[in-house]
User: Fold this.
Amino acid sequence: MLAISNDKIVKGLEIMSVKGPFSVLLPVRNGGVFLQDALDSILTQTLLPCEIVLIDDGSTDSTGHLLNLFKKQNDKKFQIKIVRTLGVGIASALNTGMEHVSCDWVARLDADDICAPRRFELQWTAASGGAVDLWSCQITTNVNKNCDAITNAGMQRFGIWSNSILSHHALERAMWIDSPLPHPTWFLRTATWRTVGPYSLEEIPEDYEWLHRFFLMGFKAEKIPANLILWRDHSTRLTRTHAAYADDKFVEVKRRFVNQRLKTTGKTRLWFFGLGPTGKRIFTMVMGFGWPIGGVVDVSPKRIGMAWNGFEIQSPVSWSRQWRSESDLVLIGVGTAEQRAACESFCRENGLSESEYLALS
Assistant:
């Protein structure tokens, strides 16, 4: 597996003079502390882009100066477009940036992240070889020298989880847990973005909502099994500070799309696994769409035999003795990755295929 390199001089790799027919899209607002490393990581790629689109969304720090200097020093290498917006927010800034993208493919990058030297080379090679619309990659999550000295086990767990999900099928299923495709890793067909449509300007996670539309429209994503992005964590990162990325906003996006997703399964009756806080939320959400319910299952001895919304809560063993309908779908709604894995394993042990169960969070 390839490992990320933070060195500004890439030893042992030749920087190609040729360019790939793709753009880089980098939005930034007051990212001067991190920005130079991100820009340097573009310059040290083994395959350079034809075009870089930089969106300065109302920065008041050193960002504007750094962007101007980058353009002055590198404008002869490739076309560099600096677009100024007035603090309109990440989604609107990205939409504006996409209007200036002129290549058939676009690589996303954030100002606080760093590309491994072969990122563009490997993603372009993959993209040019088939019908996949979005190529992602694995990530390295750590605290960089320019980041706040914080420890976040949750970010590390997310990185491990995200890196384990590679195929289109697995990525599409994982969307109901969290986004397995970190936004700065995207290498996306520009025409696909235009077909799916612009990012939502609502106060919701813009990339997560967009991906749900992408998958529902039948587009394909894959992930290269190589760590090609250093995802730098810090206390001022948007995912930590902006209300659009709160847990309830992800739940709202799931609520919007889950009924459409269930319709694509061809199933006509649902079973629910789990009646903790996560399961109750999913149960209540899905019940609102009027789906027939086969029953409710839970592993907690305290809950088994109790009533919930008119259903007697069953044990997994009791459920396994009666569930045999090809028209049924099991929705797993438990709180942790370990619990999800145990429920999925139980389903498989009882003869269910992946088309007959789906985990949500």
